[in-house]
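Exercise: predict the structure of this protein bound to calcium ion.
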Amino acid sequence: MFKLLPVPTADDKAEYRLVTGDNAEFDREEVDRYRVTVICVDRGTPPLSTNGSLEVLVEDVNDNEPRLSRHHYVFRVAENSGRSTEIGTITAEDSDLGPNGSVSFSLEPQDAESSDSDAFQVDPETGVITVEAGL
Ligand SMILES: [Ca+2]
Ligand SMILES: [Ca+2]
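Solution:
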């Protein structure tokens, strides 16, 4: 995933840049950190060495859309149900991190016939659907 490239320096210090490998692909949702051992060997006889460790943290990009727990929900509600009657809950998952993985819900009419969308409301945070106007 990584390789070291030597950086030319004026003095006799050794300096290397850590760069991503040629075929490196990062997906935070699969692996969110890498631990790499750095080995440093001199050119003496016999050669002496030391090692250290470095850690690379993979930052999140919003590359996953939210997924509803179902594509099609059917809820039932009794006629004459009053305002704030709870009908059901919709849930969703988003595997990204922080705001990239935080979802909210809203309702909009699907066609002209069911355009009376004011009859229901959804809590943007919890996904709980309630009766807004009495049925
Ligand atoms: Ca997302
Ligand atoms: Ca992501």
